[in-house]
Every structure is written in structure tokens, then in C-alpha cells.
Amino acid sequence: MLAGILTVLKIIGIVLLVILALLIAIILLVLFVPLRYKLDIDIPRTELQSGFDMEKMFLNARFTWLLHYINAGITYPKQKEFEVKILGIQVFPGKVKKTSEKADKDIEDKPSEGVIEMSNMEDKPKEEEHEEPQNEEALQEQDIEVSESTESEQPDEAHEVKEETTSDDVDGDDSKSFLDVIWKIIDFVKKLIETPQNVFSKIQYTISRVCGKIDMIKTTLENDIFKRAYALVKSKIIKLVKMILPDKTDIRITLGTGDPAQTAEVMAAYGALYPVLAGKVYMDPVFEESVIGLKAHLKGHITCFTVVYCVAVCYFNKDVKKVIRRFKKIMKS
Q: What transmembrane ranges does the database entry give (predicted)?
């Protein structure tokens, strides 16, 4: 009996250890295996005056993870929808669209209700058409009788209404007094005098609050705690941006604005940024035509561990927490 219980516990422990090992392996893969991306753009040389055709553009954006076992991306114009494949099997989008297309076809095949009603109306016998004139004559006679009876009753009702209105007006004039009118005028004058004072006091209060908040923000920015927190967050953001930026960049641009002066200004801006764009971006100017063309190839990677590490360091830092609390107090004050 005891041996059987021990064997069962042993099996349960082995299963739990295997599950724990699988979870740790999955977490390590997610954190340390990078997500790779690739972007290819090809816009043929086209004249801007004739218009830009989107169908001539080629776009290929791909994301791969875990040795291409998970592949996702879009290819325009061949494939205009984002798709996800796992081990070569398409997971997204599913087969919902095919069923929706079938439903649309079924709806198109069914006749509309309006057509059915029109067909039923056409099938009615013509006997009802002969009965309509008789019904119309009877209705006309009834309308004449009702109009005569209403005309005879209208003068009496109008006379009674006039008497009621005159009596109500006299009672209302008697109820109003001269003192009520005077008090209303006094209240109106008080409101006219008090409203500018209230508005001025509110403006003064808001200005004082804003000035107080500005002083508190200024003292916070000049504090050493904020300087340390700012330096830490800045370094981590720069690290993230460097990691996300593509490792390989090859962009070739053909550009012509149609005006040689404007094209020269664009080339001057490119020359100012040449130390940063050297070996990555190439410009081919066209001074006499209005032309655009682009060929770009970008490749890079994103590691989840770097993102989690930078966010965790900034979140759990004491200086950053103090600065966040300080700004929350300033906003609530």
C-alpha cells in the first residue's frame, strides 16, 4: 500500500517537474529568441503629374520568430491581408470569409419581399376596382355630415373659451403686486453687480493655482532626484531605440519636384543629415522633372528581454517612483 502511494507521488512529481521545465523553456524562448522583421518597398519611377498608381507599388513586410517556424506578414498587392502561419499552416485569417461569401450568394439568389408583394398585387381580381367608387361616395356623404355638425358646435366653444381667458387675465392682473416687481428689479441689479466680482475672483484663484503648480514643477525639475531619474530613463529609451532600429538599411530615392530650386533645397537638407544617413540612404535628384521613385530594404530584430529589462529597471527605480508621485501630487493639488 505504502509503495503504491509513493509511486503515485513520484509520477505526480515527475509530471509537475516536466511541466515546470516546459514553462521555463517557453519563457526563455520568448525572452531571448529575437523577433526578426524585414521590409521591402519598391515604387517604380513615376511622374507626379500623371498621378500615382497604388497597384504598381510593391510592399513586403515579414515577421519571423523561432527559426521561421512562426511567420507573419503581408505582400501588397498580391496579398492585401495580414496572415500568420505556424509550421507552414495558416492560422490567421481563418475560413470565416468563405462562409460569409456563401451567405451573400444565398441572399442574392432569394427574391426580395418587394417583388413578392408586387406580384401578389398584380394577381388580385378586378372586382375590387369596381367596388371602390361605391365606397368613396359613402365616405363623401359621411364627411359632409360631420363637417356640418362641427360647424354648428364651433361658435359655442369659441364663446366659452373667450370667457375663460378673460376671467383668467383679470385674476392674474389682480394677483400681481407692485412690491413683487420692485423686488425683482432689486434682485436683477444685485446679480449685475455681483457677477463681475465673482468672475474676477475666479480668474484670480485659477491664476494663483497655475502659478503655484508652475513653481512646484520648477522645484521638481531642479531637484537631484529628477536629474538622476531623467538620466536613467533617457539611457534606457536610447537603448531600446537602437535595438528596434534596423540592423541593415538600404534606401534609394529618386526625387524631382519639378522646380530646380526646391529640389536643391531638398538636397541641401539631405547633405546636412549625411553624417547620419551615410551608407544607408542614397538620393538621386532630378531637377527638370516632377518624378518620384523608391527602393528600400530594411532588416532588424527585437528582443523581448531588452524591452522587459529596460521597463523593469525604470519602473522599480526609487528616483523614478518619487518623481511620479511628485507629479501626481502636483496634478491633484
A: 12-35
In 3D space, the residue among 150, 323, 149, 158 whose CA is nearest the CA of residue 232 turns out to be 323
Cell of 122: 398584380
Whole-number pLDDT of residue 141: 53
Per-position DSSP letters for 36-66, written without gaps between them: EEEEEEEEEEEESTT---GGG-EEEEEEEET
Q: Which of 307, 297, 299 is nearest to 246 (CA)?
A: 299
Tens digit of each residue's pLDDT (9 = 90 or more) over 151-205: 444 444 444 444 444 444 444 554 557 677 778 887 777 776 767 767 777 888 8
Strand 248-257 to 89-92 pairing: unpaired
Residue found under cell 363623401 = 140
Residue 66 cell numbers, joined = 523561432
Amino acid at 140: Q
Q: What pLDDT does 304 receive?
A: 94
Query: Where do the structural domains in the chain lie, given as residue ranges?
Result: 125-176, 182-222, 223-295+304-332
Q: How far apart are CA 32 and CA 302, in angstroms?
A: 10
Give buried/exposed letters for 154-167 (b at 16+ CB in 10 A, else e).
eeeeeeeeeeeeee
How far apart (Å, rounded) are the C-alpha atoms in residues 215 and 208? 11
User: DSSP labels for 140-206?
Assistant: HHHHHHHHHHHHHHHHHHHHHHHHHHHHHHHHHHHH--HHHHHHHHHHHHHHHHHHHHHHHHHHHHH
DSSP conformational letter for 253: E
Residue 48's pLDDT is 82
Closest CA to 70 of 30, 100, 128: 30
Bridge partners, 71 (sequence order): 64, 85
CB 265, CB 293: distance < 8 Å:
no
Please answer whether residues 72 and 84 qualify as being in contact, where contact means their C-beta atoms are separated by less than 8 angstroms. Answer: yes
Q: What kind and span of H or E run contains 109? A: helix 96-109
